[in-house]
Amino acid sequence: MEQSLALKTLKWVKPEDLNPNHSLFGGRLLQWIDEEAALYALTQLENKHIVTKYISEINFISAPKQGDIIEIAIIAINFGHTSLTMRCEVSNKLTQQMILTIDKLVFVNLNAQGIPTAHGKQMPTQ
Questions:
Q1: Which domain does 93 fall in, by range?
Q2: CB 78, CB 56: distance < 8 Å
Q3: What is the tally of structural domains in the chain?
Q4: What is the CA radius of gyration of the chain?
Q5: Among the four residues 16, 38, 76, 94, which has the most C-beta atoms within 10 Å?
Q6: Does the pLDDT value for residue 68 go beyond 60?
Q7: Where is pLDDT greater, at 4 or 60?
Q8: Can you give the pLDDT at residue 4?
């Protein structure tokens, strides 16, 4: 897939990100994913008025620990009429161990009044 269709971000798991089991709190990871996906959608659709519409099944595979460096990869899979659909893969940057996958995150493009509106974008041809 073309590099322009993906966003990769690194996060460092710190003490304030941990749950009582001393691993990364799932809610914190989902917050990071939603924010990164929103930033990606905003830059792809060239509009700051976007919202999260749908997140499919979240598959937690392994639990990062304090000090781990994780990579969040957001990949565009479809440009709809008013939406952008992406997938997400999170892995340990140093060990490459998969941490989480999400098959679909859908963001919707809005006008200034908050109404879904066409964005005119499409997937680049390979």
A1: 3-109
A2: no
A3: 1
A4: 15
A5: 76
A6: yes
A7: 60
A8: 64
Instruction: Indicate the pTM of the whole model.
Output: 0.91
Amino acid at site 122: Q
Does 123 have pLDDT greater than 90?
no
Report the CATH number at residue 61: 3.10.129.10
Q: Would you state the pLDDT for residue 126? A: 55
d(CA 104, CA 63): 21
For residues 48 and 26, give the distance between their C-alpha atoms in angstroms, rounded to a whole number.
27
Q: C-alpha 88: how far from its chain's center?
A: 5
What is the DSSP secondary-structure string of the chain?
--GGGEEEEEEE--GGGB-TTSBB-HHHHHHHHHHHHHHHHHHHHT-S-EEEEEE--EEE----BTT-EEEEEEEEEEE-SSEEEEEEEEEETTT--EEEEEEEEEEEEB-TTS-B------PPP-
